């Protein structure tokens, strides 16, 4: 059953239930409030009295008739003690009153009794509801005035004069409009809700079928608009995740291709030289040692490739168990630089170090930072050695008071440090600079060589783990500068 049918059924059932409850409540409430006299019951009593009093063939003379009528009125008054009955002749003379009144009424007194009728029939004030009945005695009209205190009348009665059937419509039409108007507005509202839900459903179906971005109206703040907004964001996130999965698949294929290429060549060389050594196809010991050196170098290269792959796997899990401690970064970098002095001299590269003498203390994971800096240095040596220069610098950037900080800076940061590695090699083309930190990406043809292109991605991961960043500035054949930025957060506020 679709939603529209359910809404229609709900409206019909609600209307019918409301009508049933309305009638039931009237009956139940009426059973508690149906006490007292009604206009109909008073009319019945009065008409019966007038009819009985008008019978003249029962007594031969007028005195007997008068006595019979008085007895009839007294008997009725005894049966209905709240009722007062008075008999008047045609000239207004009071013939008899059940309350034993003798004096005649003035005109003002009589009119006062009829003022406010018929409203007194259902009033609650201590007033008299008065009705008049008549009969004929010796062809002379006689009048019976019946009085009843308003408080003895049934308060829930309605007194409506309907002289013609069409006048009933003047009551029923407004009553019908009163009941139908909410139903019409409910149907209009439900129809609009149903239309919006259908639009939402079509969008979800289209997204499921074609993976197109959901763009639903998100202007407003009702529940459906909020749902539209969440679906818009959800579809965007899903598409981003799908794109990321596709990109990871592409990188996986690239990794397999690179592994096949980078491992096949050294394996072929190792196999060839190993067979040569095994078969003794070398001329002298010097040639044998040369072949063995090649096998050893190629084996070390393969081990380095596998180690890089292990580093990637290690970095993907490392952020969950990072071990921060306060570290003197100046001292750590000086020790690291000392490891490369001999290597740089062998490559004919000058080495410029700019590390402050004073201690620069930062909350870091020392092994991770050392790994990132070594990757930058080894990257510069591998790809920038033709420039004959390598620079390593450390700079501390101290922030002003929080009220003076530039917009966009994290107010929790005390200062940050910048570790820069510079080479003067061929550089990185502009079109590849945005991708250089992605895994399995190499900077340019001039910078390509052996390797999988994952060293810089590890640097980016280390920076991200420390809530920092890594920047690149490269001018081909001038210089290439990689800068690792590590923030130092205020005590106790490190993320």
From TrEMBL:
What residue stretches are annotated with the HAMP domain? 191-243
The UniProt GO MF terms for this protein read: ATP binding; phosphorelay sensor kinase activity
Every Histidine kinase domain range = 258-490
EC assignment: the record states 2.7.13.3
Identify which top EC class this enzyme belongs to. transferase
> How does the record say this protein sits in the membrane?
Multi-pass membrane protein
Residue ranges of the TM segments:
7-32, 166-190
Localisation: Cell membrane
Q: Does the keyword Phosphoprotein apply?
A: yes
Q: Which domain of life is it from?
A: Bacteria
Q: Which GO terms describe its cellular component?
A: plasma membrane
What are the record keywords, sorted? ATP-binding, Cell membrane, Kinase, Membrane, Nucleotide-binding, Phosphoprotein, Transferase, Transmembrane, Transmembrane helix, Two-component regulatory system
* InterPro entries cross-referenced by the UniProt entry: ABC1_TM_sf, HAMP_dom, HATPase_C_sf, HATPase_dom, His_kinase_dom, HisK_dim/P_dom, HisK_dim/P_sf, HssS/ArlS-like
A Pfam family for this UniProt protein? HAMP
Question: Catalytic activity annotated for this protein?
Answer: ATP + protein L-histidine = ADP + protein N-phospho-L-histidine
The name under which this protein is listed is histidine kinase
Which species does this protein come from? Answer: Paenibacillus oceani
């Amino acid at each position: 059953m679709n939603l529209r049918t359910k809404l229609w059924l709900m409206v019909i059932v609600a209307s019918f239930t409301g009508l049933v409850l309305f009638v039931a409540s009237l009956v139940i409430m009426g059973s508690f409030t149906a006490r007292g006299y009604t206009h109909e019951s008073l009319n019945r009593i009065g008409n019966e009295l007038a009819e009985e009093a008008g019978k003249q063939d029962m007594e031969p003379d007028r005195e007997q008739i008068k006595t019979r009528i008085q007895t009839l009125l007294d008997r009725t008054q005894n049966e209905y003690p709240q009722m007062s009955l008075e008999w008047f002749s045609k000239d207004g003379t009071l013939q008899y009153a059940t309350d034993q009144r003798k004096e005649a009424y003035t005109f003002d007194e009589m009119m006062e009794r009829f003022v406010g009728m018929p409203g007194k029939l259902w009033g609650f004030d201590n007033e008299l509801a008065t009705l008049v009945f008549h009969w004929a005695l010796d062809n002379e009209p006689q009048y019976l005035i019946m009085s009843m205190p308003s408080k003895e009348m049934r308060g829930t009665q309605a007194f409506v004069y309907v002289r013609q059937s069409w006048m009933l419509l003047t009551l029923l039409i407004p009553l019908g409009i009163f009941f139908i108007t909410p139903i019409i507005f409910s149907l209009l509202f439900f129809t609009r809700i149903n239309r919006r839900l259908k639009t939402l459903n079509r969008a979800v179906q289209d997204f499921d079928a074609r993976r197109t971005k959901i763009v639903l109206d998100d202007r407003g703040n009702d529940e459906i608009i909020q749902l539209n907004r969440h679906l818009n964001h959800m579809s965007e996130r899903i598409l981003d995740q799908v794109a990321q999965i596709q990109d990871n698949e592409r990188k996986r294929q690239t990794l397999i291709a690179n592994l096949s290429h980078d491992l096949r060549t050294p394996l072929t060389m190792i196999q060839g030289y190993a067979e040569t050594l095994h078969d003794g196809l070398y001329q002298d010991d010097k040639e044998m040692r040369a072949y063995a050196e090649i096998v050893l170098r190629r084996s070390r290269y393969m081990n380095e490739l596998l180690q890089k792959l292990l580093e990637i796997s290690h970095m993907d899990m490392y952020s969950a168990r990072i071990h921060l401690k306060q570290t003197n970064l100046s001292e750590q970098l000086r020790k690291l630089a000392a490891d490369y002095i001999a290597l740089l001299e062998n490559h004919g590269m000058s080495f410029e170090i700019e590390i402050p003498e004073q201690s620069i203390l930062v909350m870091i994971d020392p092994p991770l930072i050392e790994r990132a800096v070594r990757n930058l240095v080894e990257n510069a040596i591998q790809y920038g050695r033709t420039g004959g220069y390598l620079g390593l610098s450390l700079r501390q950037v101290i922030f002003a008071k929080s009220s003076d900080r530039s917009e966009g800076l994290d107010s929790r940061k005390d200062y940050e440090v910048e570790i820069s590695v510079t080479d003067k090699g061929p550089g990185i083309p502009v079109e590849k600079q945005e991708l250089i930190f992605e895994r399995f990406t190499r900077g340019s043809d001039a910078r390509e060589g052996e390797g999988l292109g994952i060293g810089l991605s590890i640097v980016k991961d280390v920076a991200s783990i420390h809530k920092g960043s890594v920047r690149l500035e490269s001018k081909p054949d001038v210089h290439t500068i990689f800068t690792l930025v590590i923030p130092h957060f205020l005590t106790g506020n490190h993320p």
